[in-house]
Amino acid sequence: MSEDDIPPAPRPKRGVKPSGKPTLRTIAEMTGFAITTISRALNNAPELSQDTRDRVQKIAAEIGYLPDRAALRLKTGRTNVISLVLEPDEQIYGFGSSLVSGLTEAMRDTAYHLVIMPQFRNVQPIEPIRHIVRNRMADGVIFSKAEAFDERIRFLIDSDFPFVTHGRSSWPDPHPSVDFDNEAFAYGAVKRLVEKGCTRITMVSPESALTYSDHLRTGFLRAANEAGIAHDVAADVNLSSPTDAIRNYVIKRSKRPDAPDGYVCTSEISALAVIGGLTDAGRVVGQTAHVVTKQASPLFAQFQPGAETVFEDFVKAGQHLGALLLRRIAGEGPEGLQYLDAPKFEWQ
Known about the structure:
Layout: H1 24-31, H2 35-42, H3 50-63, H4 69-76, E1 81-86, H5 95-107, E2 113-118, H6 126-134, E3 140-144, H7 151-159, E4 163-166, E5 177-180, H8 182-195, E6 200-204, H9 211-227, E7 230-233, H10 243-254, E8 262-265, H11 268-280, E9 290-295, H12 299-303, E10 308-311, H13 314-329, E11 338-341
Parallel strand pairs: 1-2, 1-3, 3-4, 4-5, 5-11, 6-7, 6-8, 8-9, 9-10
Helix pairs in contact: 1-2, 2-3, 5-13, 6-7, 8-9, 10-11
């Protein structure tokens, strides 16, 4: 007789939970299955029937069973945890929540759980990474805002610790990454502004240390040079500047003889600040000035119909981040664990 054929033991009355902290033995006593079967069912072992897995998992949820992570780590060396390092302000416009949504979708039907580790501005970015690795708080880690020669990436490669970055780097060693093709976005955005009749354009770029800042500049400069139009990257402000600073920069630029008539924005927040500055300066977006921006939320286009947008799908990015990290944790080498999302230009 197989373990799946063991008849179920009498269950407690509906709504009555066993006293004390639920364990594997608790579920075994409630179902009549062996503890090994319970453990495999909770880990979605494919050799067990779907009915068995569903039944065990349903009871585990009903009684509030949680695995003992300390015991699991001692026994297997695994925590069944994936850690996402996230800055608090990355929740703006749903960036963080969209990544989390995609990650949880990727981890569905696995034994893994997602834990968010905050990255505060007054703490060096390497610190939460070191904390996770040295204390073995997770089986893998994900973080964003990758730099060209990011010390977090070097540390994780040297530590042989599974990770995936949201953004690429310039390290010669291959590492898992998920990114948006920002060079293609900037190139296409400039081409669109040229089509709109713009003759002088500027871009509000991210901080220069970030890898995708180089990608944006490359695409921006290539398209502008090909078109033979005047162009520059804003020197006084960047994507991390306060919105008031960006707005005031645009107002001042608009009063000069060489005022731009086209802007490339790399986020909705910067686009809102740019549009606010243009409006204050008496420009009409979509008529006397044009803006092309990336957007992560459909709300932006509804409130700013004069700007043209290119969607960056952070939910899809989260799905790929999770899928690649699971493959890396399973032992797959870093070569080939890269995904680059191509922008889709709706005006084409």
